[in-house]
Amino acid sequence: MEVDHIVRTMVEFGSKALVLGRRVGSLYKREVKEVGELQGKVDKLEEEKAALENEKEGWEAERKRLASWRVRCLDSEEKLNKRIGELEEDYEDLKDKYDGAVGELDDLKNSVIQEHINGFEKGLRQATFFYQDVDALDSRFDVDKDVVDGKLVREDERDAEEVGEKAAEEEKDSGAVVVGEENEGV
Question: Domain check: are 82 and 22 in the same one?
């Protein structure tokens, strides 16, 4: 019996091995299929990782570029602020010089006017000295008046007459007929 028993046991183990073999085969196929799917997912994740790495490198390059721009902007701002400060100092210096020059110019104008007045008064004193009947304190003597064509006129009136005379001379020179005293006989 032992041989019979051994044969039966071998047949039983053979059938169990066959069943187990089929079962292991189906499990193996399932595992291979899952591994294939997982490998696809791994490949996809590797591609995403590579894309993210490239994007990260791009962002790093952009960050460096922006950081260098920021540094350049800050440097430029610092230089411009320094230049503005220098220009403000120069402006203050020039303003002080201008104010001083304006003050000096006003003083010089006043000096010239005073010298003219002094000269006029000196002339009056000399006229009184040479002509005893002239009264230097007469109110008709005025620095702002001048004798033109035998008449005593204000200087601003004389300037207006000179402008009118120049215009008439220019018209006469250009050939235009000017109606007036000179042309009455024509």
Answer: no
